[in-house]
Amino acid sequence: MTTQDLSKKTALVTGGSRGIGKHIALALHRAGAAVGITGRDARTLSAAAREIGDGCKAFVCDQRHPEAIRKMAQAVASELGPVDILVNNAGVMKSSPVESMSLELWNEVIETNLTGVFLTIQAFLPSMAQRNRGDIFIISSMSGKKGDPGSSAYNASKFGLQGFAQALLYEVRRKNIRVMVLNPSSVETGPDSGRKEGPGLYLHAADIAATVVHLASLPGRTLVRDMDIWGTNPQPNH
Questions:
Q1: What is the dihedral angle through the alpha carbons of 76, 77, 80, 82, rounded to the nearest 10 degrees?
Q2: Considering the entire predicted model, what is its pTM?
Q3: What is the mean pLDDT of residues 149-157?
């Protein structure tokens, strides 16, 4: 099976200043892609871009705000050019029982995790459709397939991403645009210990990053629509 060369690709990772997003951006950069990252805090974002490496561009954006997304997309087009690989990773996790949950908390989670993804994809989709190619990744969660007490807003946002992604795929696949949803279980997001197997190891953000690079490298005729990713031998109850 022939793979594509990511050195000719441009990637944007939302929420790329830390955690899973930072690991994904670093892996794409190491694979040769030109990489941009977004985040809400300019200082943290700039530091992450420097750490990721030469040519990584930082774009401040709070994806709860449509105008911020529009301006970010314009800046990306100006500084990086058309985006080939869009990784929708930015999200928030807020917990509260339904009985006592505030509307503000509900809106923050839904607007960030679901509406923000819709707006970000909408901003970059015309360019992909015009060029008749593109990869759209949505970093979801196993919480998009099962409910957890105290996490109803988060669960609703992630379940929503599943339906949104499936509908989007049927709209764009004839334009050679792939929509791929990754659903990780519990993830370690700090430095990688280097241990690859054995008891007590959770899934690591570096593993999600490696999966994104692999899927982006597959021939354009190949689509992995929805992928559940588990740690093999984590702590009990995970």
A1: 120
A2: 0.94
A3: 95
Closest CA to 183 of 122, 134, 225: 225
Tell me which residue has tokens 């949803």: 181
Catalytic-residue membership of 170: no
DSSP 202: P
What is the sign of the dihedral through the CA atoms of 4, 219, 140 and 235?
Answer: negative
- The pLDDT, as a whole number, for residue 1 is 41
Mean pLDDT of 72-84: 98
Residues 6+ away with beta carbon under 8 Å from 187: 20, 202, 203, 204, 205, 208
196-215 average pLDDT score: 92
Q: Which of 59, 137, 154, 164 is catalytic?
A: 154
- Please enumerate in sequence order all residues whose Cβ is within 8 A of that of 67, keeping only pairs 6 or more positions apart, or say none: none
